[in-house]
Amino acid sequence: MLALTIEAILDFAGTRSRHFRLIACGVASHDADGTPRELFIAFFAIIRDTLRDLLGAEWSPDIARAWDQLLVDIDAFAGIAA
Ligand code: HEM
């Protein structure tokens, strides 16, 4: 699931050609399985936080801003799909 989520993030931030759709499908299927939308969305922030911890000093303000915007965009996209 983590690998599929990362593929969805990369496609969402990139060409939005295919895998990004998993975000829309996933928010509904997980909700049906009892994973609330807020927790589903929190998964993306957990990935961001983990990368930030791994990158340490290489986590630049530009990277931080790009991730902040990406999380806002993913939340909006998932909201449209929910
Ligand atoms: C904290 C948030 C999340 C929780 C608690 C969660 C929980 C789960 C659970 C319990 C399953 C297994 C369902 C089953 O076998 O019937 C599952 C499967 C799956 N989840 Fe998540 N999920 C989360 C976030 C995400 C996100 C953000 C994505 C992608 C955008 C995602 C994509 C998938 C996919 C594709 C599957 C089915 C394929 C697989 O089993 O690897 N999940 N999830």
Describe the secondary structure blueprint for this structure:
Blueprint: H1 2-13, H2 21-32, H3 37-55, H4 61-81
Helix pairs in contact: 2-4, 3-4
This protein binds protoporphyrin IX containing FE (HEM).
Protoporphyrin IX containing FE (HEM) is lined by residues 1, 4-5, 8, 22-23, 26, 30, 33, 35, 39-40, 42-43.
Describe the structure.
The mean pLDDT is 94. 78% of the residues lie in helices and 0% in strands. The chain has helices at residues 2-13, 21-32, 37-55, 61-81. It has one domain. The chain is built from four helices and no strands. The chain is mostly helical and 82 residues long. It is globular, with a radius of gyration of 13 Å. Bound molecules: protoporphyrin IX containing FE. The site of protoporphyrin IX containing FE has 14 residues, from helix 1, helix 2 and helix 3.
Indicate the proportion of strand residues: under 5%
* Fraction of residues in H or I helices: over 70%
SSE topology string:
HHHH
How many domains make up the 3D coordinates? 1
Number of strands: 0
Rounded to an integer in angstroms, the radius of gyration calculated over CA atoms is 13 Å
Comma- or semicolon-separated keywords:
mainly alpha, binds protoporphyrin IX containing FE, 78% helix, single chain, 4 helices, 82 residues
Compact summary:
The protein contains four helices and no strands. The protein is globular, with a radius of gyration of 13 Å. It binds protoporphyrin IX containing FE.
